[in-house]
Write a structure and sequence with these properties.
The protein is built from six helices and eleven strands.
């Protein structure tokens, strides 16, 4: 029997996963939560250095950032970060397509990184060589606070046709998401 697009077999499978009638009642009372499948899978970590003062525009050449989008230019290019400490950056692979809200929820308090750290990771692959970041034209994503004090999804794509990084920033509240396979940077320390 079908109810819309759901078959009775699927309803029974959910019933069984929740533990039958007792589990369903606990779920409906809010006493049982269901955790979704893992969204991020750890690829590696990378140690990054701190700095007394960082301004992205002063590091574009050494990092090989050749093209920046208008949001990045407005919110990050002249932003000053001071007294940035050393850190360990985690690099994860996005297991399935997702919106920023879900990615940030899974990362929790580790989600936001510093712009100085993001640029250091980009600099390690400034020639498009293999490394922790994708250099196949797919996005490498980091959540970074802009000059407007809001957190933005900063993305970097390696342009093999032009030989440099393309960097921009997107609203974390926007309706567009990220495809599976992209890399996500966060704090591991």
């Amino acid at each position: 029997m079908k109810y819309g697009n759901v078959t009775l077999g699927k309803i029974e499978a959910v019933w069984n996963k929740l533990g039958g009638e007792d589990g369903v009642n606990q779920f409906l009372r809010g006493e049982l939560t269901v955790k979704g499948a893992e969204l991020l899978k750890r690829v590696t970590t990378m140690a990054v250095s701190g700095t007394k003062r960082f301004v992205a525009n002063e590091h574009r050449k050494e990092t090989n950032v050749g093209l920046t989008g208008s949001n990045f230019e407005k919110l990050f290019l002249e932003k000053v970060e001071e007294n940035v400490g050393d850190a360990i950056i985690a690099i994860d692979r996005l297991v399935r397509a997702s919106l920023n809200a879900s990615i940030r929820a899974e990362l929790g308090s580790r989600a936001e990184i510093k712009l100085a750290h993001f640029f250091e990771v980009l600099k390690a692959q400034s020639g498009g060589e293999a490394g922790v970041l994708l250099v196949n034209g797919y996005a490498n994503i980091a959540y970074i606070r802009g000059a407007d004090k809001k957190v933005w999804a900063v993305d970097a794509y390696w342009g093999s046709d032009c030989g440099f990084w393309r960097v921009d920033a997107r609203s974390v509240g926007g309706p567009s998401g990220w495809c599976a396979g992209r890399r996500v940077l966060s704090r591991d320390s």
